[in-house]
Amino acid sequence: MGTEMERRRTLLARYRVEDGKEFRLQDHDPGDTAGLADKATAKALLQEGVKRLTALQDMLYAQDRWAVLCIFQGMDASGKDSAIRHVFRGVDPQGCQGSSFKAPSALELDHDFLWRHVLALPGRGMIGIHNRSWYEEVLVVRVHPELLERQKLPLRLITARIWEERLEDIAAFERYLARQGVVVLKFFLHVSKEEQRKRFLKRIEQPEKNWKFEARDVAERRHWDAYQAAYEAAIRATAAPHAPWFVVPADHKWFTRLIVAGALAQALEGLDLHYPVVSEEARAALERARVELG
User: Fold this and answer.
1) Which of the 8 DSSP states describes residue 111?
2) pTM of the entire predicted model
């Protein structure tokens, strides 16, 4: 067991970023599988991981002390939906809270950029899943700065440092969450441009996948380099031990799911989770109930 735990820890450390000062996205291979080429083995390992998550999530819910927030970011077709669906399939829906963030509504634009995300934070005992997050404000909006106009900020606040300031605010907010018992895990699903092209073509060529494709997906692809630079800047500025990034290779979905499941299980295992201890008084009440029930 100890050897297996150490092997998992070593594997996950390969993709975990806690200090972004020297981070370079080009150092991370989207096609990496850590030498694991057997999909059947990966599928078995994922099933094992999902079972671990099921047991850990049950204790998280019962203990009612910690909350866990899983943030998923990535380029279009990086596999965010697929990873969420496969990793969380064994988790009790009562202990999970999922949110998918699209373009902000008129009401949301009348508030600060964190407002709508704060409303969706998980409560104690819960796992929150955010498909896209507050990072869109330093990704999409950074690549398309004209979107700032819709946010109705006072003009004097839109300075040359606005992206650095937003990243500072995000880092401070994540530190605050950690101090409140919210475990923040951030997954960047790192897909290659070529793999994205293949997935887009599949969505166009297979009728049952047509609904997943929009013309703007190709338009956004033209900004590939700008997005890569924005992701690198975001990870550099916000990676921390209390809110790590996992730069997960995403060219092979089966491997992506394995890493996400392993990272979440490892985080939960570090929380000293256990079922609530029943007091002597409560035990006596349980015994009386047992006797009465015969």
Assistant:
1) S
2) 0.94
Find out whether 257 and 82 touch, Cβ atoms under 8 Å.
yes
pLDDT digits (tens, 9 = 90+) for 247-265: 999 999 999 999 999 999 9
Decide: helix, strand or coil at residue 58.
helix
Read off the pLDDT of residues 210-232 as tens digits, 9 standing for 90 and up. 888 888 889 999 999 999 999 99
Phi-psi region of 152 (alpha: psi -120 to 50; beta: other; left: phi over 0): left
**Rounded (5°) CA angle 236-237-238:** 100
Strand ranges of the sheet holding 67-74, from the earlier edge strand across to the other edge: 16-17, 245-249, 182-190, 67-74, 127-131, 96-100
Answer for the pair 71, 185: CB distance below 8 angstroms, yes or no: yes
Compute the CA torsion angle 169, 175, 178, 179 (nearest 10 deg).
-110
Q: Give 114-141 pLDDT, tens digit per residue.
A: 999 999 999 999 999 999 999 999 999 9
- What the block records as the tokens of 40 is 């059947």
> What is the rounded distance in angstroms from the CA atom of residue 211 to the CA atom of residue 217?
12
